[in-house]
Protein 1
Amino acid sequence: MIVKWLITMITEKKIIRIGFGLAISAFFLWLVFRNIPMHQVWDSLQSLDIIWIVPAVFVYFAGVWVRTCRWGILMRPVKHCSTARFFPIYVISYMANNILPMRIGDLYRAYIIGKKEKVSKSASLVTIGVERIFDGLTMLVLLLISILLFPIEHEAVRQTVQIGSVLFLGSILTCYILLLKKDWAGWLFSRILNNLPAQFHSRLNDLFNNFFHGLDALRGGYEILLVSCLSLVTWLIEAASYYLVLNAFGFFGPFHVAIATMALVNLMIIVPAAPGYFGPFEWACFIILGNKGYGSLTGFTQEIAAAYALVLHVVVQWIPSTLLGLIFMWTEHVSFHEIDSDDEGGYV
């Protein structure tokens, strides 16, 4: 059971994993706060117009709902369920990513949907991987449009676009090569399988078939168009929540600032870090809203940019999604211990 094996493997590496992630997060937080007096950040927080925060939270979850709808389309070849059925499981994965390292929430999502709906966990995991690719490509397009129309003189932004382009374009290209050359992939897989013990053959064959089962949503032009459109809608809605928090700090200017900030943040949090993406998240907000980003447009000082990152990350996203995820975990009758210790062997 590949998803269970991945969860177990990650759990066994807990100390190294946590230490490495904390070091990465600490480094990025140091980059943000090394030259900023904390009392000035506190002063910026006190000037916050809190009336914008509650709408920002609701808009953020509206984006999560649309994202869940999109995942439902990718999941149709595996299991057809309503958005309302998938939404609690989706939020649980957010909660797990917030408090557990190495984005293990994605594995939790595949595990829970597999257990609850009696479907292949590995095929579900493939759909999550495809979803991440669409997310990355959408972020790249939005960020590229923003910085081409409204340039930012920051080397980190350019490097993020370059690395993201290689990563996500390479990933989607690999998926389609495998789909178009399934016979070739099957031949290569069989050659590898012949060199492995016979007791693994049945399980690995199921895994191979479930992998392509998870990619089935990419075969239809209508499904690809729908997923692409929902990806754009999803992230524009999330950008609206970013914009509302900008309003809270007194900025009511062009919407593209929120789009670029949202895109860079979501590209940066790919970097392995501590649970909740602390560090890379704040740094992305800091560089795009600070002096070398859109600071001249927003009027934000470095202190306000740092305060904005903290409010957006902690108050609008981290706390609400963590609390709601814990509630949904209770209503779904699953626990961390159950997921980490369950040795069920079915639904590869």
Protein 2
Amino acid sequence: MVQHATGPSRIGAGRLLAIGVLMSETEEAERRAVEVREAERRAVRATQAAAEAAAREAAVASADAQREAEWQGAQWEAREADRAAVRAELNPDQPLPDALPRPVLPVVAAGPAVPAVPVVLVAPVVPVLQPVVVPWQAPIMHAVAAGAFSPGVGDALLRGLGTLDQAITADRLASA
């Protein structure tokens, strides 16, 4: 069909078809690699957002605990003042007894928020994605797509470099 539609010989049509298939596979692998990187970035951003939300919640809880401690301290002082006033009114000629010891209030550190409630940290949710391997032929396919090489030159390079086996790895072919 390629031979009939484009006019080259049967061998030329086969080369065009092989180059087209490799170009399609290269584009798909590169597209998947970009999708994997984007998914990883989204997972990192989601983890960072969750950590920031937990820190905000901890700061709010710490501020609430500080306000509660201050309020309870003010309540204690008001009760002690009322108690002393009533005692002084009922027994004006007797000295006031020692005040009850002030309750120990939780100390909330100034500066970075110290959580008053336990914060449960959640491990980041990273999607399990299959690693995407871009074919070693990608530079040749890009050159053919850009017009730097003709399909015939691309096919000649691919045939000349050979195929993968135990001695010839994808890294060696890509560097060649």
Protein 3
Amino acid sequence: MKVCIVGFGSVGQGVARVMEMKKDELQKEYGLDLELVAALDRSGAAINPEGLDIKQLLVTKKLTGKVSEYPEYGEEGVSGLEVLMDKVEYHCLIEVTPTNIEDGEPALSHILKAMKDGKDVVTSNKGPLALKFKEIAQAARDNGVQFKYEASVGGAMPIINFAHENLSASKIESIYGILNGTTNYILSRMVKEGSSYEQTLNEAQAMGIAETDPTQDVEGEDAACKVVILANSILKMDVTYDDVEVTGISQITPESIALAKKEGYLIKLIGEVSPESLEVSPRLVKEGSPFAVEGTLNVATLKTDLADDVTVVGKGAGSIETASAILSDLISIWKTK
């Protein structure tokens, strides 16, 4: 299977690493030979129809910050759409550019172009899914291609494929959980250290857990995108980001956290998905409950008609963790060929 990675930041590099790490295992277990024929970042592209040397590509990126500096096969200034149009033949697009919740671009155009050309698509990008889920799903059906997006919600936490496959006999009535690892880390540290929101955010940024501009995470926007994806994908609703009521964590004080703890509760940023409510907001959860997870862990409870409540937990952040979900989607696509 020839793949093209558009977006070669943390997640894109993680995907390349797991492809290299698991190469022999994938071949032996599934007969799957993953071949990276193109990788793109803001600088341009590295393209080789015969397959790029992943180790060399990762070293080039580390040393220069640009995949376009890849020896012999690097090209400066090439856009994702240009590559997807006519630069290289491939079977599956892996779209992992940064999330844009304003208009979903450039990921939306990349995804729709690939589907129009009959290519399968795997993505971790929440922007297009939060804004144009119905349109993308219809494009996949119209063009007879597979569209996988497990990594768009919860990183390594299995939820979308788990719901569709393992809980296929049940009707899922609602989903309730912690869907953002950065905010969970900040709130966990505020409980342990008694520190202010500003102090803890600075610590998280220094550790690389929070972005330089943390708005999407701390104001609940990232979790709201995931609420939309879960609502559309699992509960079969037809909603967009604008349908979610969103409140972030930036106004939470050490005093409110201490008061909650005194009563046996923790404050967590919770996403709720149900036909009656689409909401992201700080809420009280009982200490010792499934939602009392720390660090960057995500957790979600799926309420079903047959299996009652089913809870899943997993790391919600990290390049290798997110890449593991992308790799599982690639394997799933291969199994149906």
